[in-house]
Specification:
- With 131 residues, the protein is mainly α.
- The chain has one domain (5-105).
- The chain is built from five helices and no strands.
- The chain has helices at residues 11-31, 35-53, 57-74, 81-97, 119-130.
- Helix 1 runs antiparallel to helix 2, helix 2 runs parallel beside helix 4 (81-97) and helix 3 crosses helix 4.
- The protein is flat, with a radius of gyration of 22 Å.
- The N and C termini lie far apart (69 Å).
Amino acid sequence: MYTDESRQDAWEEVQRRLLNVCSEAVAYFLALTSESHREAWTNLLLLFLTKVLKISDERFKAHASRYYPLLCEIMQFDLIPELRAVLRKFYLRIGLVFNIAQLPEPDPSPDTHPCHETDTELAEEAGDEAQ
């Protein structure tokens, strides 16, 4: 329904309901005190975040704005690597979509640097300057 062009008039209501239900689900995950219960919910959270990462930038903005404080709280838990990886992608996309970060530029080729000092040489220079 959220992407069905013939139901475009319902998109705003669908988004409002999705935001409410999904933020309640993430809040529920945060409130879990049983480690085994949290483990059971981890796959649902993975699926949810993966699906949110696939939506358009405009829709992602609405979802990210709503879930951001909750997802920051999730970072305090011992998370499986797969969930950490999806959260990393989510936070990186937030940076791009909200124009608060840019993709890193590739390292220039070594030929463009006329001076090739090693880390050891730089450390020795810093040590000489400190004396």
